[in-house]
Design brief:
Number of helices: 1
Number of domains: 1
Order of helices and strands: HEEEE
Shape: rod-shaped
Strand content: 15-25%
Largest sheet: 4 strands, antiparallel
Number of strands: 4
Distance between the termini: 99 Å
């Protein structure tokens, strides 16, 4: 008969190793989720800027032969009004926002050129400039 009985269970060092590993996996998953969320916000910013760009070029400019001094949902009626608000809830040209319309060469509310810009989190700014003139 064996006088030593074998105990079942894990030792403290084994538990600590598993906890450290699990913590590392959770931290990496959290960081990856944050990066994925930022990339999704950047993609939605690009979609909004592209929608404004094509509305300006294909609709507004084609009908008026100039660009507006300011853009909004009342000027670019062909796109979803929600696209003027960035993923953080700031409207176009808000100093805290990430969408900017910068008209140039303007006279009497009629402009010859513009720059549309979105400040991105994971890349350089996304910029579109007028294609006419």
């Amino acid at each position: 008969m064996n006088t030593f009985s074998k105990k079942r269970g894990f030792t403290v060092p084994e538990i600590l190793v598993v906890l450290c590993f699990a913590t590392l996996v959770l931290i990496l998953a959290f960081v990856q989720k944050q990066n994925a969320d930022a990339m999704l916000r950047d993609d939605s910013r690009k979609v909004a800027i592209n929608a404004m760009y094509y509305a300006l070029e294909e609709s507004f400019y084609e009908n008026n032969k100039f660009y507006p001094e300011e853009i909004s949902e009342s000027v670019l009626t062909v796109i979803d009004p929600e696209l003027f608000t960035d993923p953080n809830g700031f409207y176009l040209n808000d100093s805290l926002g990430s969408y900017f319309y910068e008209p140039t060469n303007c006279k009497d509310g009629k402009c010859k050129s513009y720059t549309l810009r979105a400040e991105l989190e994971k890349e350089d700014d996304f910029i579109k400039r007028n294609r006419n003139n």
